[in-house]
Amino acid sequence: MISASGRVVIGLACLLCFVSPTIASSHNEVTHWTKFFGPQPVDHGGDIPVYVNAVAAANRAEALVVIEGTCASACTIKLAAKIRCVMPDAVLWFHSALEGEFISHAGNALLLDAYPPRVREEVVRRHMLDEIESDPEHTLTGRELIALGERACR
Question: How far apart are alpha carbons 30 and 26 in whole angstroms?
Fold first, then answer.
């Protein structure tokens, strides 16, 4: 008889066998599997003004903002920090700003203004702020951000 934990391990192994073709077709070096669950730590985002205020405080203090792990939604405003670096294995998830249940064009404008020019161009080119839902295709990895000119953390 297989224990409950043994069944979980076997189930995960079978699932990994099933999804590996999808993983191999990812648009960058981070797999869909990793993107879905994300590297640690995980920052799910939240209210845009909270992040704007936090970045403003970091800028006033001339503090280093490290972008690491999974950084989703409003967390991406960390890209507006004057002194920042990106961990290569970070994954940033982009989606439209919301006003209630609807797309907030003013919120999207604020997000785009927060992003460095080359990141903004990539977000616009890939239509990352066109949808409310999170989509693995609307992500940028730390390595991609570094390729766009962001400083790598040491």
Answer: 7
Q: For residue 66, give the 3-state DSSP assignment.
A: strand
* Token duo for residue 148: 């766009």
pTM of the model: 0.75
- Would you say the C-alpha torsion 77, 80, 85, 88 has a positive or negative sign? positive
Residue 13: Cβ within 10 Å count: 10
Terminal Cα distance for the chain, rounded: 49
Look at residues 150, 130, 137 and name the one whose alpha carbon lies nearest to residue 30. 137
CA–CA dist 61, 71 (Å, integer): 22
Q: Which tens digit of pLDDT belongs to each residue from 46-70?
A: 999 999 999 999 999 999 999 999 9
Task: Give tens-digit pLDDT for 93-147.
Answer: 999 999 888 999 999 999 999 999 999 999 999 999 999 988 999 999 999 999 9
